[in-house]
Design a protein that fits this description.
The complex is a heterodimer of chains A (373) and B (313).
Chain A: H1 3-21, H2 23-27, H3 31-44, H4 47-56, H5 65-97, E1 105-107, H6 108-114, E2 127-131, H7 134-146, E3 149-151, H8 156-165, E4 172-174, E5 180-184, H9 198-203, E6 206-207, E7 214-215, H10 218-231, H11 239-253, H12 259-269, H13 273-286, H14 293-299, H15 306-320, H16 330-345, H17 350-365
Parallel strand pairs in A: 1-7, 2-5
Antiparallel strand pairs in A: 1-2, 3-4, 4-5, 6-7
Helix pairs in contact in A: 1-3, 4-5, 10-11, 10-12, 10-13, 15-16
Chain B: H1 3-6, H2 16-24, E1 28-32, E2 35-42, H3 46-53, E3 68-75, E4 85-90, E5 99-100, H4 104-119, E6 124-133, E7 136-141, H5 148-156, E8 161-164, E9 167-170, E10 176-178, E11 184-187, H6 189-197, E12 207-208, E13 214-218, H7 222-226, E14 232-242, E15 249-252, H8 255-265, H9 269-272, H10 274-286, E16 288-294, H11 297-310
Helix pairs in contact in B: 5-11, 8-10
The chains are: A alpha/beta (373), B alpha+beta (313).
């Protein structure tokens, strides 16, 4: 790694830090820095989030017109996606929750909107994530299927993959619309190294006032966000998930000193200590640094073996932060490939991984176009 | 203190070799209406066309804030190593598959259309040509193949100022049309029609394509670029359709029908929600609305000019 390469990465992290935590600093950026920052935020899908932070600080008027237009466009896009997601929830409530007794927990971004959490603002909603008790999942799926929500045509292998090994069903989309719905019964795949108990999550879920929906309890909401980032994914360009976690924690700990304690207790109860160790470590490193020392100390015993931690500390930043858009980096590509491999390694036992990958390899050869499950 | 106000240089102030080598290197920035584009091109021969088409566009200083960073580069990809392709990228991502190198110019122009359409939701984007005469804008919203671009190119050589042949841009809850002057893509017979109609128009090299037939771009008139910051209020909406061998007809249509036609023709109507509804409603209220069927371009431009001028009396 060259010195200039490192400086490039550090420069990018600094620009993004200013964009996310210092609106006045962002408004005062040199045009070239502002330009690069906007490109990075767009790639990270954080343009909308930052747009609202600038607006809250009353600053958009101080930016060059071209920058204002891009932030405004991102807000319009975010608002429209949120509207689509809420409409989908409205239709699902109308179809499923009026006619059955299933308990439906809204997860992730849609939960942030329903609960009126600040993390929702400017966020781009890709899909609607719902969670049911495993025993009620079939009923929910059947009702939705009957009323126009259908899954894409999948190979029998992929159907089986979803149902047998993951924590969700194949996604469904209503025939007249485009929003994808994921139906979960847990927050990690059945085959994952960690085994959180889905029933425990449902037990603590809270009814959203004036709706038929539930959301995860506050601690579980944070734990899910952390687990999703650290244990379900390859982390590539997922800085926005860390930004979500940051926003959630700021909100929940603002007037509640005990929240950290309850969060770490609950992490132990749900077998999610390792993701929480990582999540808070990188939040402290790349967020605004207000995870209390005492919490970091508590998570210390949850750390992985030293070589794994050494490696993660080098890989994770390369994945969370994008490379310079004009200067593709092989090192970054290599780091991301390793994390992609890790994401599979922790999601399934070795025998299954070998089976799955060899199937995918041959399926691709014969061009069956499988979804990248 | 926008960068281009300090230096009022245009692309033509560079020499062609300077332009070519900058496109190959760090790229060149120029302003297209409300957008600032950074362009890098590594495809031999393309710089020559771009140098002419964008001659009057204002250059931007290095290190400006850009609306988009575009790049067109040649590719030879496995397994078809013998076939030269071009790849269009925006901010390092490719929005579509590589295309044959012979299509480089349309790929670049179409790429700009795509990135504008995908990103510019601070505007209501109508799929419409827009021209100005006597300080008032006329919208020509139409489906592809209905002769919108031909009519736009024709009118621009009969005393109108074209704002755009593709995007009717307007900020939500305003009625002023925003210029986006760019080369206009003529297809098939339209190319020869414009050659005969306006011999002084510069038309770039023609490209034979599979999907859309032959495409050639006509250079926008100079004043459309020198006045690209002058907005014009919408006063006339004409839905044009070209038909062979018909008598020209220009009929008024109801505001309600115009609303439906205009709303369904926008790129991002649903995305803007209520803002889009209000904007389209107000555009239609402020405008006289007509349907035009024509086959002869000379006759059509004359009638539209009479229509706009009569509105002044």
């Amino acid at each position: 790694m060259t010195t200039s390469g490192r400086t490039e990465q550090e420069g990018i992290r600094e620009l993004l830090h200013i964009a996310l935590h210092d609106p006045h600093g962002m408004a005062a950026m040199l045009p070239a820095d502002l330009d690069l920052t906007i490109r990075l935020l767009r790639r990270l899908r954080l343009l909308g989030t930052v747009a609202y932070r600038l607006e809250d600080a009353g600053l958009p008027g101080e930016l060059p017109a071209v920058a204002q237009d891009q932030f405004r466009s991102a807000q319009v896009l975010a608002e429209s996606r949120a509207r689509l997601a809420l409409w989908e929830l409205d239709r699902i409530a109308h179809t499923l929750l009026k006619s059955t007794d299933v308990k439906c927990v809204v997860m992730k971004g849609c939960a942030f909107i329903l609960s009126g959490l600040p993390a929702a603002r400017g966020r781009i909603f890709a899909d609607v994530d719902l969670m049911f008790a495993e025993s009620e999942l079939d009923e929910a799926e059947a009702v939705l299927n009957e009323r126009g929500w259908q899954s894409q045509r999948l190979t029998p292998y992929d159907q089986n993959y979803y149902r047998k090994w993951t924590h969700e069903l194949p996604p469904v989309v209503h025939i007249e619309r485009e929003v994808e719905i994921d139906l979960h019964h847990n927050i990690l795949p059945r085959t994952s190294r960690l085994k959180p108990d889905g029933e425990k999550l449902l037990l603590r879920s809270l009814r959203v006032p004036d709706t038929d929906y539930y959301v995860l309890g506050d601690e579980d909401l944070v734990l899910h966000a952390i687990t999703h980032l650290m244990f379900n994914d390859d982390l590539a360009d997922k800085l926005r998930e860390l930004v979500d976690i940051d926003a959630l924690l700021r909100h929940f700990t603002r007037d509640d000193e005990q929240f950290w304690q309850r969060l770490t207790d609950r992490a132990e109860e749900l077998d999610l200590t390792r993701p929480v160790f990582y999540g808070l470590r990188y939040l402290r490193r790349f967020g605004n640094g207000d995870v209390p020392d005492i919490v970091i100390e508590r998570t210390h015993s949850w750390r992985p073996p030293a070589p794994a931690l050494w490696l993660m500390d080098r890989l994770v930043p390369r994945a969370l932060f994008p490379p310079h858009p004009d200067l593709p980096s092989r090192l970054t590509d290599a780091c991301r490939l390793l994390l992609y491999m890790r994401s599979h390694w922790i999601r399934m036992p070795p025998w299954l991984l070998a089976y799955h990958l060899s199937y995918k390899f041959w399926a691709r050869r014969f061009d069956n176009k499988p979804r990248n499950a | 203190m926008s960068p281009e106000s300090k230096i009022s240089r245009t692309v033509s102030d560079l020499s062609e070799p300077e332009f070519d080598s900058a496109l190959r290197g760090d790229g060149i920035g120029w302003r297209i209406g409300p957008f600032t584009a950074r362009v890098q091109v590594g495809v031999p021969g393309l710089a020559e066309s771009l140098y002419r088409f964008y001659a009057h566009h204002p250059l931007l200083e290095h290190g400006s804030v850009y609306s988009f960073h575009t790049r067109l580069a040649t590719r030879r990809a496995f397994p078809r190593l013998y076939r030269k392709m071009v790849r269009f990228t925006v901010d390092g991502r490719k929005p579509h598959e590589d295309m044959p190198r012979a299509h480089a110019l349309p790929v670049f122009e179409w790429g700009l259309n795509l990135v504008i359409a995908l990103r510019s939701h601070c505007f209501l984007m109508l799929h419409s040509a827009v021209l100005e005469r006597n300080g008032k804008a006329m919208l020509l919203p139409a489906m592809p193949g209905h002769g919108k671009t031909t009519l736009c190119a024709g009118l621009s050589y009969r005393g109108w100022r074209p704002l755009s042949d593709e995007f009717g841009l307007v900020r939500p809850r305003t009625g002023d049309m925003i210029p986006v002057p760019r080369p206009m893509a003529l297809k098939n017979e339209s190319i020869d029609i414009i050659r005969g109609f306006a011999p002084e128009a510069w038309i770039g090299p023609a490209t034979e394509g599979k999907r859309k037939g032959t495409v050639a771009h006509v250079m926008p008139i100079a004043t459309s670029i020198t006045r690209q910051k002058e907005l014009a209020p919408a006063k006339m909406i004409v839905f044009p359709r070209w038909e062979p061998d018909t008598k020209l007809s220009l009929e008024p249509i109801s505001k309600a029908e115009s609303f439906m036609l205009l709303a369904t023709n926008a790129f991002n109507y649903e995305l803007l929600g209520e803002d889009a509804f209000v904007t389209v409603r107000d555009l239609v209220r402020a405008s006289e609305c007509y349907r035009l069927v024509y086959s002869d371009l000379e006759e059509a431009t004359r009638r539209l000019t009479e229509l706009m001028d009569a509105d002044d009396d």
